[in-house]
Amino acid sequence: MTIRHLLHTLLLALLISSATKAAAQTLRIGTDNWPPFRHIKEHQVTGIDNDLWQQLSKKLSIKIQYVHCPWKRCLDLMKTGDIDAMSGLAWQQERGEYIHYIKPAYFGCSTRFYVRRGEEKRLQNREQLNHLNIGMVRGSAYYTEFDQNNTLQKTQLTQESVLLPLLASGRIDSYIGTDCQADFELARSSWYQQLVKAPFNPESNTPLYIGLSKKSDWNKNSQSFSEAIQQVLANGFRDAMQQKYYQSSE
């Protein structure tokens, strides 16, 4: 092998090594549209979760890459390790088999049901759920009693935004959502005067976490992610997000 060929081979090896290292430092994050946490427009992601990821990427010196997918599809990709992480995750035991939930939670919501205005009496207690067609997002976790009840009539869809017109048009009787997202979306929709929270309150608080795929190489850095989240929260992240996405838009 000539010196020229040797130098060419060494250079190629260095380039491959650099490319591999760069790829290894890129965190692939599954994301769908879920304002104000995740808002996708023209392939750009904004919202509470993006603000969190941007801060974490600086603290951990990593690059992030969003992979757009419906919620259920994102979960499937977490199972296989084809994406590394997700945010906005509610705890569910089944998910815990393939997702490493990173503590502490970075935000919290309450689970509520929504009905058409004037029909509040249709959902005043949990027993009345048995008589309703309830809209929900496929693959979502709300609260254990609801999630594990296979006798309820559940209409499962890919996005929350579809639930509002379905309820307004009478195609479903109610839908379930987390108020920190559902209230935000309803207030900015054309149905905000037609739909209201049902009197029945399951009194279920839902902490939101980021999670790492257990098949991702990033999983070994879970402690670093946990420490970074604690630092972000200590710097007033939750109050800042309340001001930016809720109070400022009232």
Would you write up a description of this structure?
With 250 residues, the protein is of the alpha/beta class. The chain has two domains: 3-108 and 207-249, Periplasmic binding protein-like II (D-Maltodextrin-Binding Protein, domain 2, 3-Layer(aba) Sandwich); 109-205, Periplasmic binding protein-like II (D-Maltodextrin-Binding Protein, domain 2), CATH 3.40.190. It contains eight helices and eleven strands. Strands 5, 6, 7, 8, 9, 10 and 11 form a seven-stranded mixed β-sheet that branches. Helix 2 (48-60) crosses helix 7 (222-234).
Number of domain modules? 2
- In the predicted model, the low-confidence regions spanning at least 5 consecutive residues are 6-23
Q: How would you state the average pLDDT, rounded?
A: 90
Number of strands: 11
What sort of overall outline do the alpha carbons produce when their principal axes are compared?
globular
**Which CATH class of the largest domain applies here?**
Alpha Beta
**According to CATH, what is the topology of the largest domain?**
D-Maltodextrin-Binding Protein, domain 2
CATH superfamily of the largest domain: Periplasmic binding protein-like II
What percent of the residues sit in helical stretches (DSSP H or I)?
A: 25-40%
CATH architecture of the largest domain: 3-Layer(aba) Sandwich
Task: Specify the biggest β-sheet.
Answer: 7 strands, mixed
The structure class reads alpha/beta
CA gyration radius, whole angstroms: 21 Å
- How many distinct helices? 8
Order of helices and strands: HEEEHEHEEEHEHEHEEHH
**End-to-end gap:** 72 Å
- Sheet-strand content, in percent, reads 25-35%
InterPro entries: Solute-binding_3/MltF_N
Keywords: Signal
Protein name: Solute-binding protein family 3/N-terminal domain-containing protein
Family: Belongs to the bacterial solute-binding protein 3 family.
